[in-house]
Specification:
Length: 263
């Protein structure tokens, strides 16, 4: 689209192009997965849980858990975390589950230690509450010492600068007015079909900092596009691959999808 608009003009491009594909693949900390374990015998109302020594959030009923991408292992902090657990499960690997509970009449079990794979789970869904930032900041360091951040290692006295984003390929840069991206939009997520389920947290489209909230079935995902990661002296995260097709419904979208990095 971009080259066609440059060579032949926006009207020709509008007539000839039906869909523009966009995408991004980066560290997206506000990500995680909901899992439902199914009930043990006797049943258990989980209070605290760990997978591969990573603390797992228990936000709901007895065996519903949320694996946060940035939760760090208690035995391998800054090296292994929730994003790695999700990647391992998607890859079909066996992981260790530990859980404790206070015990009730209907959920008498208080201890559980076992191994699981994704095939043992009733549900395993990626629910990411802030992904695909439209654009992001550039980071540099004015201090006299090196610092370690979620934007990477920053050298002293403005010795380097780091930035994040895919620029002209970013989905939200190509549809900044959300003419085609919204609740229910089908997307490529982690190697399979996913969905936009709403605006992401900190969504600020007026200032060019749009975000989306997404959902997808982890059992169908590919670990090539979901990768656990660690930032030195900062913590763990997860790289997420997202692609969004933008149908060229009008000449305005043809013009918008011709955006270049220089802009």
């Amino acid at each position: 689209m971009k080259k066609l608009v440059e060579s032949s003009g926006v009207e020709v491009a509008f007539k000839e192009v039906d869909v523009v594909t966009t995408g991004t693949f980066g560290a997206m900390c506000s990500s995680g997965a909901i899992i439902n374990l199914g009930h043990s015998d006797p049943p258990m109302k989980i209070q605290n849980a760990w997978i591969n020594d990573v603390p797992i959030c228990h936000p709901g009923a007895a065996v519903d858990l949320y694996i946060g991408a940035t939760a760090m292992s208690e035995t391998r902090p800054f090296e292994y975390g929730g994003g790695h657990v999700i990647e391992d499960l998607i890859s079909g690997k066996e992981v260790e589950l530990r859980a404790t509970a206070y015990g009730t009449d209907c959920y008498p079990r208080t201890q559980l230690r076992t191994t699981i794979t994704k095939d043992d789970l009733n549900q395993f869904y990626l629910i990411n509450f802030r992904n695909c930032y439209q654009r992001y900041v550039c980071a540099t360091n004015s201090r006299d010492e090196t610092i370690y951040t979620y934007m990477g290692k920053l050298l002293p006295r403005f010795g380097n600068a780091t930035f994040a984003g895919t620029g002209e390929l970013n989905p939200l840069m190509n549809d900044p007015d959300y003419e085609t991206i919204g609740v229910g939009t089908r997307i490529f997520l982690g190697g399979t079909q996913g969905y936009v389920i709403g605006e992401g947290t900190q969504h600020d489209p007026k200032n060019g900092y749009g975000t989306i909230m997404v959902r997808g079935d982890c059992k169908k995902m590919n670990p090539k596009f979901i990768r656990g990661a660690a930032f030195t002296k900062y913590g763990t995260t997860m790289y997420v691959g997202i692609g969004i097709p933008i149908p060229i419904l009008n000449i305005g979208l043809a013009r918008k999808t011709a955006i270049r990095d220089e802009e």
